[in-house]
Amino acid sequence: MPPRAEIRRLFEAIAHRYDLGNHLLSGGVDRRWRQRAARIVREHQPRRVLDLCCGSGELALAVARQLHPDHHGTGIDLSEHMLDRARAKLAAGARSEQWSFCAGTIEQMPFPDRAFDAAIVGFGIRNVEALAHAVAEAIRVLRPGGLFLSLEFSRPQLAVLRLPYQLYLHRFVPRAGGWITGQPAAYRYLADSIRQFPDQPSLAAAYRECGLEEVTWENLTGGIAAIHTGYAPDPASASP
What we know:
By secondary structure, the chain is α/β, with parallel strands linked by helices. It has a single domain, classed as 3-Layer(aba) Sandwich (Rossmann fold), CATH 3.40.50.150. Helix content is 48%, strand content 21%. The protein has 9 helices and 7 strands, in the order αααβαβαββαβαααββ. The chain has helices at 4-14, 18-26, 29-44, 58-66, 80-92, 131-141, 159-181, 184-196, 200-209, and strands at 48-52, 72-77, 99-103, 116-122, 142-153, 213-220, 225-231. The chain is globular, with a radius of gyration of 17 Å.
């Protein structure tokens, strides 16, 4: 994992074409993944939502469109350039009154305990320096029983997909991403970080070890991506 400053620099450099790169390289399926995540969030009807590693606000906007108009959302991200895009995107979607954004790291957030009903993260949990610290912070700011949801790249479950996907990820994506954004190093990092990231059951086990309860996952597009969900523990319900 590169240092946090290097991660910030990579995302600052590609912010201007980050969404275009995502949509082109995924063939638009990334939108469907976020929509599925947003529908899961809607089932819980949270009033206070925290978007971790919010980036350009794609997941925030998808969730905002699904929730009751009186919800409030907060996004946090390392990159100011990404946050500028998120603010503009939510404003264009008539959601600027409901959502606010701040710069920061999710391993140490400036929010009070139990401030949110749901904490979500889309394609960002791979980039944290310390997963245990990040999840512990998410649990701290969630109310007891609050939803934690991560949408992330994972491991294809269909054998027929594995080799073509690896070739696409490691050979095509850095070249095409570099052409789209002018930053091939960012897309080499993307491919390497996906390869090094835990698979579905390993990530679920890590989340449980971090303290989340009832952790499950749902594969998307044959496991190329996956949604993991879990819940903040309720100390009042713990056995004496």
